[in-house]
Amino acid sequence: MRSARGSVLMEYVMVQALVACVLVVAMNESFYDWATAKFGPVGTEVKHFYQRLLGGLSLPVP
User: Fold this and answer.
1) pLDDT of the residue at 62
2) CA–CA gap between residue 40 and residue 34 (Å, rounded)
3) Backbone angles phi, psi at 54, to 5 degrees
4) What is the pLDDT of residue 61?
5) DSSP letter at 2?
6) Distances (CA, A) of 29 to 2, 12, 40, 48, 52
7) Non-local CB neighbours of 5 within 8 Å, separated by 6+ positions
8) What is the distance between the alpha carbons of residues 20 and 59, in angstroms, rounded to a whole number?
9) pLDDT by residue (tens digit) across 1-54?
10) Would you say the pTM of this structure is higher than 0.85?
11) What is the DSSP string of 3-61?
12) What per-residue confidence (pLDDT) applies to 4?
């Protein structure tokens, strides 16, 4: 039973790595285009969200 634990964990790691690679390839230009050094449409929205979030958190609390 102990030897099966490692194979299940390795299968999980391989599936997660495959999903991560697919996401990186598919969404690379949507988030940031390295050739033009500009944010893509999704990356611009994420950037604006974090700017609004940090702006709201930096406001003084009365």
Assistant:
1) 66
2) 10
3) -70, -35
4) 73
5) H
6) 43, 27, 6, 17, 23
7) none
8) 36
9) 555 666 888 899 999 999 999 888 877 778 887 788 888 888 889 889 999 999
10) no
11) HHHHHHHHHHHHHHHHHHHHHHHHHHHHHEETTTTEE-HHHHHHHHHHHHHHHHHTSPP
12) 62
Q: Which two tokens stand for residue 62?
A: 């009365």
Cβ atoms of 39 and 47 closer than 8 Å: yes
Amino acid at 17: A
Contact 40, 30 (CB under 8 A): yes
- Residue with token string 């958190």: 57
Q: How far apart are CA 43 and CA 29, in angstroms?
A: 9
Tokens encoding 26 = 């598919």
